[in-house]
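TICKET: design request
STATUS: open
ATTACHED STRUCTURE:
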């Protein structure tokens, strides 16, 4: 028995000693996995509140990108309040609603350094006010009264023709919508609660007897009132009286593609076709605005702002295509917003009918910067491929460029005559 007690006492003493050492000796973390120090002055903490600083703030679906940029959800007005929850490279992640996340460029958002909102719930206490639908001589308007400038997303729909506006960060407290007889294009407006902090606004549009319904809409803030401005279809069935902007792609130091055989530059060829198209449209009675009429390099934001101010009835951007695969040929047209698609469809149809070219397709939801505006119908025309020997021979022929301009013009005229 004494032998067993001594053994027990020895084990007990060893355990007590080990416990004491564990309390006094710090745990050693290998250098290879030691975390880097975080400097509070240089690493922002999230979530925080921020506001957009540009009336052309890009709102993206995700953080991915390609040569056209990220997949764009919306272009936000300035001063829009955003709940910033993180950062990935040069993009802030923002929470639009409990189940809605988007990304914005860091350079287009000003963070409020005193606005740490970690304890704030994701749901919001913002409430909508009452709305008014009205019109003037050119446009119809929906005025949505809000307590602050909240983020939004819009889209066009056809069959039925309407606009959809998703408003984030607010709950419904709208008890009436006043519709005045001055509104001519808007048939009615209503809303649905899609979830916490997510309201869907539906704007039903009256269609003309002939031609397309969608002639553009603009979304912007007047103080804290969100305005949806809807352009009415112009009268008539021709191009006469329309203001049509023609954009010659590239320019200046932005040369675009180069002909594989001739060495001719895309910027020069697009300007030539743009001038020929302008002549055709002028003879058809349109008022033409050339976005550039010289070898100048206008960055996308400058072009967009100029067209916002001009507010044409239609914009056509002229380019020529190119590919690393020299066997690729054909012509194509591009659109982003569904209501503007007829313009690109009929222009492509006329090019295929009148020119000795192959079809490269009618491409939708295209992320080209001049396809993004909703203020006016727009389309991108890509002529044949400068990288293909056969296509390049066509492009460098002035007679072909004249026929190309005429085909584009005839396609635009057909849209005006649609039933």
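STATUS: resolved
RESOLUTION: sequence designed for all positions
ATTACHED SEQUENCE:
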């Amino acid at each position: 028995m004494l032998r067993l007690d001594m053994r027990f006492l020895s084990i007990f003493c060893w355990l007590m000693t080990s416990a004491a050492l564990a309390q006094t000796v710090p745990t050693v973390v290998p250098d290879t996995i030691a975390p880097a120090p975080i400097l509070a002055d240089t690493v922002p903490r999230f979530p925080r509140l921020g506001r957009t600083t540009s009336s052309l703030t890009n709102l993206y679906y995700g953080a991915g990108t390609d040569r056209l940029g990220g997949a764009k959800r919306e272009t936000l007005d300035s001063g829009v309040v955003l709940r910033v929850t993180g950062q990935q490279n040069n993009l802030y992640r923002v929470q639009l609603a409990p189940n809605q996340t988007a990304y914005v460029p860091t350079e287009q958002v000003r963070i409020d350094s005193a606005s740490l909102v970690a304890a704030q719930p994701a749901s919001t206490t913002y409430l909508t006010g009452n709305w008014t639908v009205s019109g003037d001589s050119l446009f119809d308007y929906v005025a949505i009264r809000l307590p602050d400038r909240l983020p939004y997303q819009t889209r066009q729909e056809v069959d039925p023709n309407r606009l959809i506006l998703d408003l984030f960060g607010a709950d419904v407290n709208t008890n009436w919508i006043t519709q005045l007889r001055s509104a001519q294009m808007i048939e009615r407006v209503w809303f649905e609660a899609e979830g916490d902090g997510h309201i869907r606004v539906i704007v039903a549009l009256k269609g003309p007897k002939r031609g397309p319904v969608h002639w553009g809409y603009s979304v912007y803030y007047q103080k804290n009132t969100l305005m949806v401005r809807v352009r009415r279809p112009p009268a008539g069935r021709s191009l006469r009286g329309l203001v049509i902007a023609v954009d010659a792609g590239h320019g200046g130091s932005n040369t675009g593609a180069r002909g594989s055989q001739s060495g001719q530059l895309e910027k020069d060829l697009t300007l030539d076709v743009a001038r020929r198209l302008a002549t055709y449209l002028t003879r058809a009675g349109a008022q033409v605005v050339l976005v550039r009429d010289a070898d100048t390099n206008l960055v996308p934001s400058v072009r967009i702002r100029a067209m916002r101010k001009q507010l044409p009835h239609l914009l056509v951007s002229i380019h020529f295509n190119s590919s690393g695969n020299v066997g690729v040929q054909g012509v194509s047209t591009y659109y982003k917003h569904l209501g503007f698609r007829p313009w690109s469809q009929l222009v492509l149809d006329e090019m295929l009918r009148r020119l000795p070219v192959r079809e490269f397709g009618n491409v939708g939801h295209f992320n080209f910067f001049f396809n993004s505006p909703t203020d006016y119908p727009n389309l991108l025309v890509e002529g044949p491929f400068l990288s293909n020997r056969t296509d390049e021979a066509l492009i460098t022929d002035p007679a072909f460029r004249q026929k190309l301009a005429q085909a584009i013009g005839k396609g635009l005229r057909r849209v005006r005559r649609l039933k």
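CLOSING REMARK: The first helix runs from residue 2 to 24. Residues 131-231 form a domain with the Immunoglobulin-like fold (CATH 2.60.40.3500).
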